[in-house]
Design brief:
The protein is mostly helical. It is built from ten helices and two strands. It is elongated and about 65 Å long.
Length: 230
């Protein structure tokens, strides 16, 4: 097998592993891995792109978690489930749309941030493999969110839209997407984590430029070459 095939196999196995752990053992495995990856990127010298991407995904997951907790509290206080479910699904859709938009212009936003707070590192901002792949994954997130939201609205149209019970009753049993939703979200989240993990590895092999304060030349030096210097 070639290196590329081994790499694809690693990504596939990682996605399956994270999905299994998330569904069967530890529901917050993705958050743990993301926090770990964020710490790794802060320890790395030139992983500015990955810092921004992981921070973005982590923040979205945190907001999603907070929204879910609010919905649980509302349910405990007697709020009808169809309202809290609408809140949770709607919030997830909005968050995924925001992340999708930010990913589209991530390099621009990162450059603006770095030029303001870390001007010496602007040359390390560029489009990574993760930018492209995550853009596709979050598009899938949006499609899944729209499907489950549409099914939810149809199933509860008598409560939400005031439709007669006779009209709404045929849709009460529509729950195919709703039942598949946790599995779809788990697989997509596992894809996100795997993409970030794989891209960190790829970025670590990329030739890099020395910092301006270390060397004024424009020579490109690989990490292994730096380690061989006396």
């Amino acid at each position: 097998m070639t290196t590329s095939n081994y790499f694809l196999l690693f990504c596939l196995v990682s996605t399956i592993f994270f999905s299994f752990v998330h569904l069967e053992l530890l529901g917050y495995i993705h958050s743990i891995v993301l926090v770990s990856l964020l710490l790794v990127t802060f320890l790395a010298k030139h992983q500015e792109n990955m810092k921004h991407l992981i921070a973005l995904v982590s923040l979205a997951l945190l907001l999603e978690y907070l929204t879910y907790n609010v919905a649980v509290e509302l349910t405990e206080k007697g709020t009808p489930p169809y309202i809290t479910n609408t809140l949770v699904i709607g919030a997830q859709l909005i968050l995924d749309l925001i992340v999708f938009y930010i990913l589209k212009y991530r390099v621009r936003f990162s450059l603006q941030f770095v030029k303001r707070f870390q001007p010496k590192k602007w040359q390390y901002i560029y489009t990574t493999h993760a930018d492209i792949l995550l853009y596709g994954v979050y598009l899938a997130f949006i499609v899944v969110d729209l499907l489950v939201l549409g099914e939810h609205l149809l199933r509860n149209m008598d409560y939400i839209f005031g439709v007669s019970e006779a009209t709404a009753k045929p849709f009460w049993s529509w729950n195919w997407v709703y039942k598949s939703y946790p599995y779809a979200k788990s697989i997509l989240l596992s894809c996100v984590v795997t993409i970030l993990l794989a891209t960190i590895f790829v970025e670590n092999q990329r030739p890099e430029q020395e910092d301006d304060d270390e060397d004024d030349s424009d020579e490109v030096i690989h990490k292994t070459d730096q380690q061989q210097k006396p």
